[in-house]
Design goal:
Length: 373
Amino acid sequence: MEAQGVDMWITFTREGNEDPLVQDLRFSDLTWRSAAIIERTGTKTAIVGSLEEETVRQQKFYDEIIGYGSEGAAPKLNEFVRKRKPKKIAVNTSYDEGAADGLTSGMERYLKTALKDYSKRLVSGEDLAIALRARLIPAEIELVKKSIAECEKVYDAVETAIKPGKRDKDVHAFAHRLLTERKLDSAWAYDRCPSVVVGNAPMAHVGYYGTKIKDGDFVKLDFGVKYDGYCSDIQRNYFVGSGRVPKGVEQMFKTARDANDAALAALKPGVPGYKVDQAGRSLIVKRRYPEYKHALGHVLGRSTHEIGPLLGPRWPNRYGKQGEKQVQRDMVFTIEPSVTSKFGTCNLEQDVLVTSKGYQELSKPQDEIIQLG
């Protein structure tokens, strides 16, 4: 907050349209208009309906809890802010980051009316939300590592289902059985995780197309699990059959591996996300493969697509300014440029942790195509 010149950060929420950050702030499932306030000093105050004072107190997170009755939240909010005279008040509004955009239009209108002249001092708390969600503490990093380890175990086991005569749907269902047996959740929508793509079927956020696997097919899986609230997101690529892997597949795979490595060489704190994307994207295009139509990577954490810097191109109509944000230490990113040919799309998605000087690989990088059959 000090670095951004913010004196006070207000998360203003209510039931029915909770702010996405309430769980991080131990402020969920509250009925009436409720304000979680953090000051630059670190002092945390909650303003809530009187019947929920004890509810919040039991969380043992807030230094002061202020209840209100029939008068509503506005008088307490106004009094609290006027006593402290903040010059900048951050609220959860954002053009680009969904989880940092939790202040609904109605709640914003109420807050501005309550704060009166101080409403002119409201600024976006986007960067504060990113620091809260995307920069992980050691305990969180360990949970991401465990999530990745569980994901890799499922990947190892699912290989037995990838064989000629099986359909992509069968592989998808087999992975779901493994999730159930291991008491794991999927990292994203269950019906789309994993995504099983056979041959040159379009890469998309779908579970499967209903395609039968044949000898000589290229197969790609995109899969992740959620372990104790934290996500993994990995892709693996296979060639089905005992014969020689076609030269075109080998070249596609090598280009994908080289693109990952080029991006990783550029990944370090302080680098804008678009430059990391540019490193991988330019290599692929120079080798005369089509430009992939997505970002090279994203932040990983409690959500698969966590808020924070995007390792993506400068496409403002699609990504806004997400690619302009700088990579920060203690963020976990996916690295996933795609290489498409007549054989299919190769994507060697891996998960890495940004360190003070570069990165640490968390998932095992795929250095060779996996041949099954």
